UniProtKB/TrEMBL annotation:
Residues 147-230 form the 1-deoxy-D-xylulose 5-phosphate reductoisomerase C-terminal domain. The keyword Calcium does not apply. Its cofactor is Mg(2+); Mn(2+); Co(2+). SUPFAM superfamilies: 1-deoxy-D-xylulose-5-phosphate reductoisomerase, C-terminal domain, Glyceraldehyde-3-phosphate dehydrogenase-like, C-terminal domain, NAD(P)-binding Rossmann-fold domains. GO terms for biological process: isopentenyl diphosphate biosynthetic process, methylerythritol 4-phosphate pathway involved in terpenoid biosynthetic process. Pfam families: DXP_redisom_C (PF08436), DXP_reductoisom (PF02670), DXPR_C (PF13288). This is 1-deoxy-D-xylulose 5-phosphate reductoisomerase. Residues 262-379 form the DXP reductoisomerase C-terminal domain.
Length: 388
């Protein structure tokens, strides 16, 4: 097996560390680039273990500190910073695959630049397609670059579609765990704490995506992603709550057959699938399903009245243009405000709805317009936080 060289954006986050765990089990994957936001202690450990050529730290002060550390230890690695550094890692000549595991809008520009350099994109950054899905997919098509989904749901659909004609697809069915509050009433949701929201019943994830899971915004963002990744209409994408997180998503075909992808709730499955695609490889380090111990697989409709973020995402996708970018930016600000205890859990969708209502949508935006609208939405959202 030939060695595959990868650059990993967001190496100190949840997906990033799990990606490196997959890498550590296979000598045929070489890491040539890494990036982190500001966790240079963990990044330093990763540099010593994986020996990348270039790393990026988004925080300039932390980047300078890491550079001094590397020099004092005579470690031959180039330390860059900011967006320029992130793009440098994403466009490394040696990298064949770029894993985009950063959180937020920050992933858009390096992903686009990596596509233009012909890199295979292993996409774990939802916001890239949510904010600029049409632009990103058109660019990928123009440069003949595959975008391989790393999200467990989209990886599941990607696998279920293999070998079948696009014209035979009836529905994509995204499964959702429902989050920690799936059995709550409206009254119970009034007083949920940050700590409770961060306790996901099935998955181990970063704080932002965990809150998104609790509000069902995560599933809404995945609906928008699915539309762009798989070129289907909004009416062909459904969401079903599946508490056990064993079925990661399904594809229903026009003949009534439904194909599902099953596995333990372990992100290393979809990560490994993307890294080795189109092949499969032995992953003995990942636990396998034991069907004799599974007594029940349950399904129910999502409670959009209690978790309106999901409907807001459907609305943004139906409107199109810059509205999904506004949805995403407002949500990022709202989630951060909730984590900082500045707003309540139920105020998250209220804030997003207010910002969306204030936005005058641009139907076919350029990259510059998307970036400007993103800035506007963040400023307006912070003003709304200050009022609450």
């Amino acid at each position: 097996m030939r060695t595959r060289k990868i650059a990993l954006l967001g190496s100190t986050g949840s997906i990033g560390t799990q990606t490196l765990d997959v890498v550590s089990h296979d000598e045929h994957i070489e890491v040539v680039g890494l990036s982190a936001h500001r966790n240079i202690d963990l990044l330093e450990e990763q540099i010593k273990k994986y020996h990348p050529k270039v790393v990026c730290v988004m925080d300039e002060t932390k980047a300078q500190e890491l550079s001094r550390r590397m020099a004092s230890q005579n470690l031959a690695v180039e330390v860059t910073c900011g967006m320029e550094g992130l793009i440098a890692v994403a466009t490394l000549e040696e990298a064949e695959v770029v894993v985009t595991a950063v959180v937020g809008m920050i992933g858009l520009l390096p992903t686009l630049e990596a596509i233009k350099k012909g890199k295979i994109i292993a996409l774990a950054n939802k916001e890239t397609l949510v904010t600029a899905g049409d632009l990103v997919m058109e660019t990928a098509k123009a440069y003949n670059v595959p975008i391989l989904p790393v999200d467990s749901e989209h990886s599941a659909i990607f696998q279920c579609l293999r070998g079948n004609s696009h014209q035979t697809v009836s529905r994509l069915i995204l499964t959702a765990s429902g989050g920690p509050f799936r059995d709550y009433t409206k009254d119970m949701l009034q007083n949920v704490t940050v700590e409770a929201a961060l306790k996901h019943p099935n998955w181990s994830m970063g704080s932002k995506i965990t809150i998104d899971s609790a509000s069902l915004m995560n599933k809404g963002l995945e609906v928008i992603e699915a539309k762009h990744l798989f070129d289907v209409s909004l009416s062909q994408i459904d969401v079903v709550v599946h508490k056990e997180s064993i079925i990661h998503s399904m594809v229903e075909y026009i003949d009534g057959s439904t194909i599902a992808q099953l596995g333990m709730p372990d992100m290393r499955h979809p990560i490994a699938y993307a890294l080795y695609y189109p092949e499969r490889t032995m992953t003995s380090y990942i636990p396998k399903l034991d069907f004799t111990k599974m007594s029940n697989l349950s399904f129910e409709a999502p409670k959009k009245d209690l978790f309106p973020c999901l409907q807001l995402a459907y609305d943004a996708l139906e409107i199109g243009g810059t509205m999904p970018a506004v949805l995403n930016a407002a949500n990022e600000v709202a989630v951060e405000a909730f984590l900082q205890r500045e707003i309540s859990f139920l105020q998250i969708p209220e804030m997003i709805h207010e910002v969306m209502n204030r936005h005058i949508c641009i139907s076919k935006p350029s990259l510059e317009e998307i970036l400007e609208i993103d800035k506007w939405a963040r400023v307006y959202s912070r003003q709304e936080v200050a009022k609450l």
